[in-house]
What we know:
The protein is mainly alpha-helical. It contains 7 helices and no strands. The chain has a single domain (59-212), classed as Ferritin (Up-down Bundle), CATH 1.20.1260. The longest helix has 31 residues, at 108-138. It comes from Hymenobacter metallilatus.
Amino acid sequence: MPAFLAPLRRVRILLLGAGALLLGFCGHPRNEQHAEPARPAAAPADSGHVDAPVEHATATGILQRLQESLDGLSLNGRADHDFAHLALEYTHAGLDLANLTAERSTSDSLRALARRVRPGQERLLPELEALTSRQHRLHANHRLDPTTPFARATATMRRDLRTRRAALPASPDPAGDLAAAWQIYAASAARLGQLELRYGQDPRLREIARLLRPVGTSR
Protein backbone atom coordinates (compact mmCIF):
# COMPACT_ATOMS: atom_id res chain seq x y z
CA MET A 1 0.00 0.00 0.00
CA PRO A 2 1.41 3.46 -0.83
CA ALA A 3 2.55 5.27 2.31
CA PHE A 4 0.21 8.22 1.75
CA LEU A 5 -2.83 5.88 1.96
CA ALA A 6 -1.91 4.41 5.33
CA PRO A 7 -3.64 7.14 7.43
CA LEU A 8 -6.85 6.69 5.46
CA ARG A 9 -6.77 2.94 6.11
CA ARG A 10 -6.38 3.55 9.86
CA VAL A 11 -9.35 5.94 9.84
CA ARG A 12 -11.44 3.33 8.01
CA ILE A 13 -10.59 0.66 10.60
CA LEU A 14 -11.51 3.01 13.45
CA LEU A 15 -14.80 3.87 11.76
CA LEU A 16 -15.75 0.22 11.28
CA GLY A 17 -15.19 -0.46 14.96
CA ALA A 18 -17.11 2.57 16.17
CA GLY A 19 -19.91 2.05 13.68
CA ALA A 20 -20.49 -1.55 14.76
CA LEU A 21 -20.86 -0.43 18.38
CA LEU A 22 -23.14 2.52 17.65
CA LEU A 23 -25.58 1.19 15.06
CA GLY A 24 -27.71 -0.40 17.75
CA PHE A 25 -28.21 3.09 19.19
CA CYS A 26 -30.09 4.28 16.12
CA GLY A 27 -33.74 4.12 15.24
CA HIS A 28 -34.86 1.96 18.16
CA PRO A 29 -38.56 2.36 19.02
CA ARG A 30 -39.08 4.14 22.31
CA ASN A 31 -40.95 2.29 25.04
CA GLU A 32 -43.24 4.73 26.83
CA GLN A 33 -44.14 2.66 29.86
CA HIS A 34 -41.75 4.44 32.25
CA ALA A 35 -41.47 7.81 30.57
CA GLU A 36 -42.45 11.01 32.38
CA PRO A 37 -42.71 14.51 30.95
CA ALA A 38 -39.18 15.62 30.26
CA ARG A 39 -37.74 18.40 32.36
CA PRO A 40 -35.20 20.83 30.94
CA ALA A 41 -31.67 19.72 31.75
CA ALA A 42 -29.70 22.35 33.61
CA ALA A 43 -26.16 21.79 32.30
CA PRO A 44 -23.23 23.68 33.80
CA ALA A 45 -22.08 26.65 31.79
CA ASP A 46 -18.82 24.93 30.85
CA SER A 47 -20.30 21.49 30.23
CA GLY A 48 -19.94 21.71 26.46
CA HIS A 49 -23.17 19.81 25.89
CA VAL A 50 -25.19 20.12 22.70
CA ASP A 51 -26.05 23.78 23.23
CA ALA A 52 -22.37 24.77 23.45
CA PRO A 53 -20.76 26.50 20.45
CA VAL A 54 -19.37 23.83 18.12
CA GLU A 55 -16.55 26.09 16.98
CA HIS A 56 -14.91 25.82 20.42
CA ALA A 57 -15.25 22.04 20.69
CA THR A 58 -12.77 19.28 19.93
CA ALA A 59 -13.22 15.52 19.94
CA THR A 60 -10.76 15.07 22.81
CA GLY A 61 -12.38 17.97 24.66
CA ILE A 62 -15.78 16.25 24.42
CA LEU A 63 -14.29 13.09 25.94
CA GLN A 64 -12.70 15.15 28.69
CA ARG A 65 -16.01 16.86 29.49
CA LEU A 66 -17.69 13.45 29.55
CA GLN A 67 -15.09 12.27 32.05
CA GLU A 68 -15.60 15.34 34.22
CA SER A 69 -19.37 14.96 34.08
CA LEU A 70 -19.17 11.30 35.11
CA ASP A 71 -16.85 12.12 38.00
CA GLY A 72 -19.19 14.87 39.20
CA LEU A 73 -22.36 12.76 39.37
CA SER A 74 -24.18 12.03 42.64
CA LEU A 75 -24.16 8.24 42.53
CA ASN A 76 -25.18 5.80 45.24
CA GLY A 77 -24.06 2.38 44.03
CA ARG A 78 -27.55 1.19 43.04
CA ALA A 79 -27.40 -0.06 39.47
CA ASP A 80 -30.62 1.41 38.04
CA HIS A 81 -30.15 4.81 39.68
CA ASP A 82 -26.52 5.14 38.67
CA PHE A 83 -26.99 3.74 35.17
CA ALA A 84 -29.71 6.29 34.34
CA HIS A 85 -27.45 9.17 35.37
CA LEU A 86 -24.38 7.78 33.62
CA ALA A 87 -26.31 7.00 30.42
CA LEU A 88 -27.63 10.57 30.33
CA GLU A 89 -24.07 11.91 30.30
CA TYR A 90 -23.06 9.45 27.57
CA THR A 91 -26.03 10.57 25.49
CA HIS A 92 -25.02 14.23 25.86
CA ALA A 93 -21.47 13.36 24.79
CA GLY A 94 -22.68 11.30 21.84
CA LEU A 95 -24.74 14.22 20.60
CA ASP A 96 -21.75 16.51 21.02
CA LEU A 97 -19.60 14.16 18.93
CA ALA A 98 -22.31 13.82 16.29
CA ASN A 99 -22.75 17.60 16.04
CA LEU A 100 -19.00 18.18 15.87
CA THR A 101 -18.64 15.49 13.22
CA ALA A 102 -21.41 16.99 11.10
CA GLU A 103 -19.85 20.44 11.42
CA ARG A 104 -16.17 19.65 11.02
CA SER A 105 -15.51 16.31 9.40
CA THR A 106 -14.70 15.97 5.72
CA SER A 107 -15.00 12.17 5.94
CA ASP A 108 -18.14 10.85 4.26
CA SER A 109 -18.06 7.78 6.50
CA LEU A 110 -17.83 9.81 9.69
CA ARG A 111 -20.59 12.16 8.61
CA ALA A 112 -22.81 9.20 7.73
CA LEU A 113 -22.11 7.70 11.17
CA ALA A 114 -23.12 10.96 12.84
CA ARG A 115 -26.34 11.13 10.79
CA ARG A 116 -27.26 7.58 11.83
CA VAL A 117 -26.48 8.02 15.51
CA ARG A 118 -27.89 11.48 16.20
CA PRO A 119 -31.65 10.85 15.76
CA GLY A 120 -31.69 7.96 18.22
CA GLN A 121 -29.79 9.95 20.82
CA GLU A 122 -32.04 12.97 20.37
CA ARG A 123 -35.08 10.79 21.01
CA LEU A 124 -33.49 9.15 24.03
CA LEU A 125 -32.28 12.33 25.72
CA PRO A 126 -35.62 13.62 27.12
CA GLU A 127 -36.58 10.14 28.27
CA LEU A 128 -33.31 9.76 30.17
CA GLU A 129 -33.83 13.18 31.74
CA ALA A 130 -37.22 12.01 33.01
CA LEU A 131 -35.84 8.68 34.17
CA THR A 132 -32.99 10.30 36.11
CA SER A 133 -35.51 12.54 37.83
CA ARG A 134 -37.58 9.50 38.81
CA GLN A 135 -34.53 7.55 39.98
CA HIS A 136 -33.34 10.54 42.00
CA ARG A 137 -36.68 10.73 43.83
CA LEU A 138 -36.68 7.00 44.52
CA HIS A 139 -33.15 6.98 45.94
CA ALA A 140 -32.78 10.53 47.26
CA ASN A 141 -31.92 9.40 50.80
CA HIS A 142 -29.35 6.77 49.83
CA ARG A 143 -25.68 7.59 50.20
CA LEU A 144 -23.00 6.21 47.96
CA ASP A 145 -21.99 2.66 48.75
CA PRO A 146 -18.71 2.17 46.86
CA THR A 147 -18.65 -1.51 47.74
CA THR A 148 -21.57 -2.57 45.55
CA PRO A 149 -20.57 -4.55 42.45
CA PHE A 150 -22.04 -1.90 40.15
CA ALA A 151 -20.19 0.92 41.93
CA ARG A 152 -16.88 -0.93 41.74
CA ALA A 153 -17.38 -1.84 38.08
CA THR A 154 -18.37 1.67 36.99
CA ALA A 155 -15.44 3.15 38.91
CA THR A 156 -13.14 0.90 36.88
CA MET A 157 -15.00 1.89 33.70
CA ARG A 158 -14.43 5.58 34.43
CA ARG A 159 -10.74 5.02 35.15
CA ASP A 160 -10.36 3.14 31.87
CA LEU A 161 -12.10 5.94 29.98
CA ARG A 162 -9.70 8.45 31.56
CA THR A 163 -6.69 6.32 30.63
CA ARG A 164 -7.77 5.81 27.03
CA ARG A 165 -8.63 9.49 26.61
CA ALA A 166 -5.26 10.57 28.03
CA ALA A 167 -3.47 8.18 25.66
CA LEU A 168 -5.29 9.52 22.60
CA PRO A 169 -2.53 11.01 20.44
CA ALA A 170 -2.96 14.43 18.94
CA SER A 171 -3.72 14.01 15.26
CA PRO A 172 -3.22 16.57 12.50
CA ASP A 173 -6.02 14.79 10.67
CA PRO A 174 -9.48 15.78 12.01
CA ALA A 175 -11.00 12.60 10.56
CA GLY A 176 -8.53 10.43 12.46
CA ASP A 177 -9.07 12.39 15.68
CA LEU A 178 -12.85 12.09 15.46
CA ALA A 179 -12.74 8.42 14.47
CA ALA A 180 -10.55 7.57 17.46
CA ALA A 181 -12.82 9.56 19.79
CA TRP A 182 -15.90 7.75 18.45
CA GLN A 183 -14.24 4.38 19.07
CA ILE A 184 -13.31 5.24 22.67
CA TYR A 185 -16.78 6.64 23.35
CA ALA A 186 -18.61 3.69 21.81
CA ALA A 187 -16.56 1.08 23.66
CA SER A 188 -17.09 2.80 27.01
CA ALA A 189 -20.84 3.26 26.42
CA ALA A 190 -21.16 -0.41 25.46
CA ARG A 191 -19.41 -1.39 28.67
CA LEU A 192 -21.88 0.69 30.69
CA GLY A 193 -24.75 -1.09 28.96
CA GLN A 194 -23.28 -4.48 29.80
CA LEU A 195 -23.05 -3.52 33.49
CA GLU A 196 -26.70 -2.47 33.65
CA LEU A 197 -27.76 -5.74 32.03
CA ARG A 198 -25.73 -7.63 34.60
CA TYR A 199 -26.84 -5.75 37.72
CA GLY A 200 -29.91 -3.65 36.88
CA GLN A 201 -33.58 -4.53 37.34
CA ASP A 202 -35.63 -1.75 35.69
CA PRO A 203 -37.10 -3.13 32.43
CA ARG A 204 -36.87 0.11 30.45
CA LEU A 205 -33.36 0.87 31.64
CA ARG A 206 -32.34 -2.62 30.56
CA GLU A 207 -33.79 -1.89 27.11
CA ILE A 208 -31.74 1.28 26.94
CA ALA A 209 -28.69 -0.69 28.06
CA ARG A 210 -29.12 -3.02 25.09
CA LEU A 211 -28.90 0.01 22.80
CA LEU A 212 -25.46 0.74 24.21
CA ARG A 213 -24.07 -2.74 23.58
CA PRO A 214 -22.24 -3.86 20.44
CA VAL A 215 -24.41 -5.23 17.67
CA GLY A 216 -24.27 -8.99 17.44
CA THR A 217 -23.50 -9.76 21.08
CA SER A 218 -25.80 -12.00 23.04
CA ARG A 219 -28.36 -10.49 25.34
